[in-house]
Amino acid sequence: MAGTVSDRYTVAGLSRIHNRDALSRSLGLCPDQAGILTNEHLFALCYDRWKAHCPNFILGEWVFVLWDCWEKELFIATSHYWQSSLFYYRASDALFFATSLGDLLAFPKVPKALNEFFLGRLLVGWDDPMGETLYKDIHYLGPARYLKMSKNRLEIHRYWALEDTPALRYRNDRDYEAAFFDIYAEAVRCRIGDGSSVGLSLSGGLDSGSVAALAARSLHQDNQTLQAFSAVPLHDVNNFAIKGRFADESEHIRETARHVGHVDINWVRSEHRSPLQAMREVIAWKGALPLSSTNLYWILTMFEMARNKGVQTFLIGQTGNATVSWRGGFNGLIDGGGWFNYLSQHGFVNPVALARSFKRYMIVPMLPKSYHRHRQRRTDPKIHWQTYSPINKTFASSLPIQETMHERGRMVVHEKGRCFREKMLHLIKPRDASFSLFWSELGHRHGIWVTDPTADKRMLEFCVSIPNDQYYRKGVDKYLFRRAFATILPDKVLNSELRGQQAADLPQRLRQEISEIRKVVTSFNQSELCHRYMDLSKIEASLTSLDQNHPFFFRDQCGILTRGLMVGLFLTHFEGRPFNERKTCSPGAH
């Protein structure tokens, strides 16, 4: 929506504002005025009152662009975390921008030169945009930022930093639990209280289950039913064997729906869309690549089903693992409690357990980080990117991937000896919120507003500010969540020690179209770009592993094959452009 809202301001926005009443009171508006104002009018009034500070006062999920015709100044701002995507390209005489990368690429004057460093990061599964995109000179503004441009001068500022949230302390556990539940319930309620039809991506886990419970309770008060969409295997997965995972979540999903009530389950089996077809669809409309391609087929099918059901607002719990259901954990002296605090929490233990705990929580955290990196690379093949990436080794060695990973803290999550607040922030990625890009773009493409209550600004600030002992106590992880939802979610879900595995029957689906996949991989050999950027022999080896039904294909080879297919399809698609548009950018050009 766009338009001139006064003789001074022209505003365009993609937005849902969650604190309209509070904003209206701060602006001195009467209730009748506030009720008829569009979001664009509110943005203009906020900017007129607070200028560049106005984004701090607007709670919700939004991007807005404002042109001040008096000052000849352009102002663009994104919300604090979710739904905040904006891409832009600055030419010598113009600024091009769009909320979708595909829409921006549609401008003829926007160049389509490959950003090699970004492509390399995608090939190794590194999802930190760092303000960049897959195309040279096309940038991602990112969350909690505003851009000002006047007289050919462009400035970008980050107006909110989750990392700066101060510590929060309550008197007792009951106060933490009450505050947590109230904030979480409001984060859900404010997203579904506009009367629109509501859908939800429901798995058998805690995050989507808790969102479902809170949403169904709120919707039932308005005589509405929550439409849940749940991906389940199409093929037999009885032999699925990955430690700590289970393949078919349907039993847990049914249990959650029965316990919560007022939930209609729509099973997403994606019988008519193959993984390869889904990759081609996304490349055709997006013009770029999502980080992961393993779940594309059922996600696309899920959104089609939701659109056909008339869903307008779609809830997910994508950020929940790092916020509402954060597991916490004992971290030796770093968390402040130390060994004696651990003993007091756990009481009397047998000598063997005592010795094991002493080694794990006292000796091991004190060892150098190099030891942990070596041990993890030796015992877990997925820790080091060279083992699971289809990247060409020569290409990889020309990029500062390893150095930048360590500089940006990419490997920190796998290292011991760091406080849990830092690990939580590492997973949330407040500077980039990269995983929200694909979800929001996909939702807009289907005419659906995708939103994540577990990424609410208030929820984020609360979760990173409270002490670790609210998350981990006496050997119990996710301690705060388990207390708050003790009667709201079923015990089978709440206390499960296993996690569901999305797309667990992906190997069977890939084998169904193995002839077509083999043709695609063979076509990569005719591509100059595929040879330059990818290790085609490694991709062919993963295809052989799939053909031979290797028992550990899902764990060891699936990522190589699917990421190789996705990138290879993109590169061959990119090569189909007119020659004068096919350029690449070396890492030294950034």
Q: How would you describe this structure to a colleague?
A:
The structure is a single chain. By secondary structure, the chain is α/β, with parallel strands linked by helices. The chain folds into four domains: 159 residues, Aminohydrolase, N-terminal nucleophile (Ntn) domain (Glutamine Phosphoribosylpyrophosphate, subunit 1, domain 1, 4-Layer Sandwich), CATH 3.60.20; 233 residues, HUPs (Rossmann fold), CATH 3.40.50.620; 92 residues, no CATH class; 84 residues, no CATH class. The chain is 43% helix and 14% strand. It is built from 27 helices and 18 strands. The strands form five sheets. It has a six-stranded antiparallel sheet, with helices on one face. It starts with a strand and ends in a 5-residue tail after the last strand. The C terminus is likely disordered.
Q: How would you describe this structure in keywords?
A:
Glutamine Phosphoribosylpyrophosphate, subunit 1, domain 1; five-stranded parallel β-sheet; alpha/beta; Rossmann fold; 590 residues; disordered C terminus; 14% strand; 4 domains
Which helices and strands, and how do they pair?
Elements lengths: L1 E3 L4 E9 L2 H7 L4 H6 L2 H12 L9 E9 L4 E6 L8 E4 L4 E4 L2 H5 L7 E3 H8 L14 E3 L4 E6 L2 E6 L14 H20 L5 E4 L4 H15 L5 E6 L13 E2 L3 H11 L2 E6 L6 H12 L9 H13 L4 E3 L22 H9 L4 H13 L5 H11 L5 H4 L4 H5 L3 H7 L12 H9 L6 H11 L3 E3 L5 H9 L13 H6 L6 H4 L4 E2 L5 H7 L1 H11 L3 H6 L2 H12 L5 H4 L1 H18 L7 E3 L5
Parallel strand pairs: 7-18, 11-12, 11-15, 12-14, 13-17, 15-16
Antiparallel strand pairs: 1-2, 2-3, 3-4, 4-9, 5-6, 5-8, 9-10
